[in-house]
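Chapter summary example.
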Amino acid sequence: MKLANPDLLKFQNYIDGTWRAAARTMAVCDPANGELLGNVADGSAADAETAVTAATAALPEWRRRTAAERAATLKRWYQLIVENSGDLARILTLEQGKPLAEAQGEILYGASFIEWFAEECRRVYGQTIPTHNPAMRLSTIRQPVGVVSCITPWNFPNAMITRKAAPALAAGCTVVIKPAQETPLSALALGQLAHEAGLPKGTINVVTGSDAAGIGRVLTQDPRVAKFTFTGSTAVGKLLMAQCASTVKKMSMELGGNAPFIVFDDADMDTAVKACMATKFRNAGQVCVATNRIYVHQAVHDEFVEKLRTEMAALKIGHGTEAGINMGPMIFRRAVERVWELVQDAVASGANLEIGGEPLPNGENYFAPTLLTGVSDDMRIATEENFGPIAAVQQFTDETDVIRRANATPYGLAAYVMSENIRRANRVVEALEYGMVACNTGVFSTTVAPFGGNKESGLGREGGVEGMAEFYETKYCCFGT
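The structure predicted for these 481 residues follows.
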């Protein structure tokens, strides 16, 4: 791996300000071609405990620092990420598979959280409360919750770390991060830049490893950890929530989705198709807020499908470092097998396969962009999060009915509405039971707004002022005079 800054390529755990080998190593491979990128520390539960000990020891000094002092350190981290964005993007593409342009976008998006929260921590205020008794003075202050543990996913191995670590550090907390075993190099590179930025030892720790259960138990059950934050599937999230219950930890959980994409007959078709492509095929569909169910009004169904088919056929698929590539591989073979199974089930249940529908010869982790029509609500493709490059189209005729169908899921992360009728758009956006709803766009995530879901899609919010509040406890103070 050729990098302008070779120091970014790390293979050991980052604990207490030092790089530490583990007893074993695990291979990290390029999902596009299977090539070995390196052997990374295969950390254990004991390594996680050491990291928690380091974070606990570092907490008093870090939280005593003024907001301005913490902000200055975080700004240096942000600047180093921006300066090294090319190398960070290359690392991300090689271990995760997304096209280089997407990876570069993720690096800058991830860095923006560090910049935002470095600024926001200087604007965290308490309150003076009008008293109920003249002999008492009432107020509140906001204090850092304590040691924070994070488990992050492979689909956004840079941004899902900064979105959690930045507000925690800005609030005065210390952090232990367990990245996905498929994509540890991005996390370790962030650890190196945090070290260079001057974050004190123990303030941020990165433990890589294949023993997700063992490390996870430490991060969820160690009583020294005050807050746990996770991005991943709902099934795993429920297990981790149960483990957190043993010490009643604060939690933030960004879990699975089943996003509806509703196209009304008054929508601009070109805008709708562009938005659908953006939300469906970014990162080969491996995005928690990716469109999963496409509902198109009967009157514009054929037009929408034809335009979407044309755009899908134009996708250039290959290794993310190659020029012009706009869709890379899926992360591993079992992900390919799962989406293939969902497509076959849909066709067997009566759906029409318009294009795609099978693995590609590029490599074992590639799957063709797939368009299905004639999909019904009872098919697996409509009830399960497909997490792949599958566009599954259904028809509707009635606004009330499509809202009911869109809401008929235990998930509530993201939803999309395409309509040029402002009254309809407002009605539908408000009626959809989702934490985030985008109208006439397929890309909505931003540092300055809260990100998170309702129902079984999670707890809490990341980003915006709400994301900062997740890492504070509010203390009520009562003084007798």
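To summarize the output: The chain has a mean pLDDT of 97.
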